[in-house]
Input
Amino acid sequence: MSTELRKEFTRYLQTQRYAAKTLDAYVGAVYGLAAYTLKPPDRLSNDDIQDYLHYLINERKLAWSSCNVVFSGLQCFYGKFLNRDETAFSIPPRKRTRKLPLIMSRDEVCAFLDSVHNLKHRTLLQTVYSAGLRVGEVVRLQPHHIESDPGRMMIRIEQGKGRKDRYTILSEKLLDLLKDYYRVYRPGEWLFPGRDPDQPMPIPTAQRIYYNAKKKPA
Output
């Protein structure tokens, strides 16, 4: 890569207000290509460029993110700076890995909940697991949503997913825990209030309670 061409490409990137880190990476991508092919980069064919990308992926074993930076730099150089009509070179898309959610057994859930000694935290987590609630639903429960009349043991979920009200089963075990919780905390408008008793517990706080509990040894 000639000094003059490098200066012109650098000036172009500066004019387009690319960040300094991106500028260095893009200039470095073109410099690396020129060093690999031993030819002026403005005279290379798409096949030459594709061969270089193949070398980075299959021989140098660069991570996809690193290859993508080089690819983006070359696209900018040829497609925008040189105004080449066709930039027919590419890299494979990033491989997506799907992780199955970790599902605890019933015994593991019981052991997990038994390890939580803070009554408020334990009641919140027990409500989530027992009633099958989402975190955004449990923090918006109000005391009157707990319907514990004989023959109608239900929890009312207002404006849940899809903005539809629904009911879920209230177990005897959860009801007993809720009674203990209510006697101690005497919640007002919200079953699980935040620091401000007039506001529900923020979702990030409830999530933090869960993750902190998961860190505790069984």
